[in-house]
Amino acid sequence: MTRRQASAVLRRWRIVEIEGWDAGYIDMLGPGHIQLDRDGGEIRFGAVEIGLDCSYGPTTAHFTFQGHDEMTEVSGDGDAELEPDGTLTGEIRFHLGDDMPFIAKRC
Q1: Residue 85 exposure: Cα atoms within 13 Å on the Cβ side
Q2: Rounded mean pLDDT, 54-74
Q3: pLDDT value, residue 34
Q4: Average pLDDT, stretch 18-41?
Q5: Is the per-residue pLDDT at 3 higher than 60?
Q6: pLDDT at 30 exceeding the cut of 60
Q7: How far is the C-alpha of 60 from the C-alpha of 29, rounded, in Å?
Q8: CB 65, CB 51: distance < 8 Å
Q9: How far apart are CA 24 and CA 77, in angstroms?
Q10: Where are the domains of the chain?
């Protein structure tokens, strides 16, 4: 039996900044967040709701996603890394669309 590696990024993170978007948009339909779980996760901000398929390192996550931005289907990939100050930084990359750097804090 192979034991899964523990990761310090597994939890719910509050998105506090996404390059190019103000806090009003990030929290439009509720607090923007990224949830990283052993079996996947989700990201919600603005009108974006995406499900994640994740792989983890001790302080990192890489993910692919599918979901919706308003009524439009979206997909892509991204990554996240735990910084020394305890924040999570990363990027959400929409297929044929925007690259969105983000900063998140522990909930």
Answers
A1: 6
A2: 97
A3: 98
A4: 96
A5: no
A6: yes
A7: 27
A8: yes
A9: 24
A10: 11-106
